[in-house]
Amino acid sequence: MLNSVLQILEARRSTSLEQLKTFLAIPSVSAKPDHAAAVRECANWLSNEFEKTGLKSAVRQTAGHPVVVARNNHVAGRPTVLLYGHYDVQPPEPLDLWTTPAFVPTVRKDENGFDAIYARGAVDDKGQVWAHVEAIAAWQAAGGLPVNITVLIEGEEEVGSENLAAFVRSNREELKADVCVISDTGLFNRDTPAIDYGLRGLVYEEVVVTGPSHDLHSGQYGGAVPNPANVLCQLMASLHNADGRVNIPGFYDDVQTVSQAEKDQWKRLNHDEAAVAKSLDLPFLSGEAGHSALERTWSRPTCDINGMTAGYQGPGAKTVIASKASAKVSMRLVPNQNPATVQAIFRKTILDRAPKNVKIDFIINDHNADPVVVAIDNPATTLAAEAVKLGFGKEPVFIRGGGTIPVVGLLTRELGLACLLIGFGLPDDRVHSPNEKFDLDCFYKGQKTAAALYDKLSKLAV
Amino acid sequence: MLNSVLQILEARRSTSLEQLKTFLAIPSVSAKPDHAAAVRECANWLSNEFEKTGLKSAVRQTAGHPVVVARNNHVAGRPTVLLYGHYDVQPPEPLDLWTTPAFVPTVRKDENGFDAIYARGAVDDKGQVWAHVEAIAAWQAAGGLPVNITVLIEGEEEVGSENLAAFVRSNREELKADVCVISDTGLFNRDTPAIDYGLRGLVYEEVVVTGPSHDLHSGQYGGAVPNPANVLCQLMASLHNADGRVNIPGFYDDVQTVSQAEKDQWKRLNHDEAAVAKSLDLPFLSGEAGHSALERTWSRPTCDINGMTAGYQGPGAKTVIASKASAKVSMRLVPNQNPATVQAIFRKTILDRAPKNVKIDFIINDHNADPVVVAIDNPATTLAAEAVKLGFGKEPVFIRGGGTIPVVGLLTRELGLACLLIGFGLPDDRVHSPNEKFDLDCFYKGQKTAAALYDKLSKLAV
Prior knowledge:
The structure is a homodimer.
Chain A (H helix, E strand, L loop, with lengths): L1 H10 L1 H13 L10 H17 L3 E5 L6 E5 L8 E7 L19 E4 L5 E4 L3 H20 L6 E7 L9 H7 L1 H4 L3 E4 L11 E6 L1 E10 L5 E2 L10 H10 L22 H8 L5 H7 L13 H7 L4 E8 L8 E2 L2 E10 L5 H15 L5 E5 L8 E2 L5 H14 L4 E4 L5 H10 L3 E4 L14 E3 H18 L5
Parallel strand pairs in A: 3-6, 3-7, 7-17, 8-16
Antiparallel strand pairs in A: 1-2, 2-6, 4-5, 5-18, 8-15, 8-17, 9-13, 9-14, 10-12, 11-13
């Protein structure tokens, strides 16, 4: 049966690419209020595509952007798979750095000569979702999926899955499953497929410093008043020590030490730091002292500024002391840090350190996510590794990731689900950046892996 | 004769206000390359207005924006006055904070119930220039100015008067005068007219930090790479010590100490720091320890961030490590600091302190200005004080200012001219800020002062 499924996938390659282009052309930027209609359009389109495969699908409301839920007829005794993905994308800015526009999906060769499709969301996560849609469609065309499936594709992953928890809690019965499959990560490198077993958590904050009630002439007032931009820099700079450690009292209190065995396993991956640095035009990588780059991204927390605004940003000079300055800051968390605790000590630290003649406001709430490490010593993971081997022609390695998929902690906690993190992306896919891409070879191997995965998981004892 | 001049001014009040509105409506923003046509239009309009008063006027080219030069027939034996002003204005941003649009001049009451005209450039410097144009026109209508006048109104004051030095050097003979008059400052407060005798200098820098060659996913790479926004904050924060002093080695080496006598004189002005703080919605003023607010703005150098850009600045969250981050920084200088020296040590400090895996670029050059203290123990200043008393009904106080008028150093140095800094603005005119205004009472008293000044200066022995 799998063989005919794979033949169908093979035959549908160019059609599937065209379908992916249609999916990518919808600017479903969840962060932007003025894109709400496009987000909804994307949900409607996707739900309709699931209907076409023969699944029952619906666009379901939340307090924010809708989720798409689709399912086949569940047959008693068969394993049930919950497939999670997201149809929303990151903002495409800065627009001028895109070679082709973010929402005009374009196939071309990457710097290394590999064919890829370029668009915002190409790999994160529309392309990976689409690999599964193709696999599902092929199984359905070949006579029907061998497992019970419930598909949950949300529209708020890039803004912290704010409303998903409430949705999961209200629809616990409907979402019950034996295992959860998520394709929103990547290979270790082009030659090494991977299964992820760890993700970092997240706290996202926006700090606004307000000084004088209006912008001031920097000559007339400079030296006499607190300058919010200078204050912001002092506050932000205070968040790290000279050795690259985060300087927030209590920040590392709950950080789990990685065992030497696990570190040794990571060393055997032969991560080439010099090659990564070169690919980013950096003379060398840097960060917290005493840890390798893999350790720093997989098992150490961070505090990074993601955006900063103050005063005049146009061409030339303006001699002004701006009334306000603000920074968007994200902290990636590792087991066993708690987002609420970290958020509280972050805010306390900023307030404690701020001069008493400026006002501090924090905006953006509920964008927190737990760090997770998932179990891999289970039959589902063994079956998943077999599927990856079939799809990519190589045994996968087991790695952690530096990113965050808020739903993993949620599903583990709320539904007691084991999550299989099987990703088809490449490290150089420019996720969240201009010229995001999805390698076409990975796209097709991803479809094959997904198809094989549903076959393998049908053998899961339930 | 002065009496009939003053009567003409009185009769022309509403006409002069309409004329000022026309002047203010031209968006002559010198910093913005796309406003070059408006800058030129403004120069042409102004030159034509001088022609209407009977002066010979011309728009003269420079390597940048043009200057307007006008003059009457110089009569041997009469004192010659060089009137300097500028017709360019600061960028109006942030636009959304203007109650009425920056280039739609509007008369309304200010927060304290005084009539004022609101527009970008209202007081800095178009309104003050226009007070002189009216005084000149009235004198011409009454039979002719009693002095030789050369008017020099430039279009690059707000971008550092970059090309004025070359123009002055090439036209030394034509610009020769006995005294220079500049109205680009203000009263000490509404009840206290003032003559300025000191201005701070300026160094303006833009620092660009470049890290990775493109924006990165903050999860995938966070912790492994230098984040340019964090690096920028560290560099900017390093520029001050905890006591508010600028932390650039050598920065204070050439700073002249203010004599106790001068400090005592400033104390007698009874500057109300609490009232200033209140007017800015600040609980208290702050800055370098050990100096009053007046001392800090008049006689101490600064290092203020005027603008800052990094990463995502739209609504909501984007988890990105931006490739670049930049800050516009201005340093106000005091006697005897040298702009070139300060610029050099600023750049060296930034380069010394930057991590070795980011690239630092400096942009915006030639925006430097010397700090100046002008002599006031001379007959011209005594005559000017009499004119201010006639115009405002009160003796002026002698003060310094915190701002910069690049031309003052230039004219002193190149032409050996004594500069009379007689300003008609108020401290709360929101210069360089949204809702810039010019008080109408100050506008009319400024016209009267200017008219009286030409009368008084005709008695200057030459």
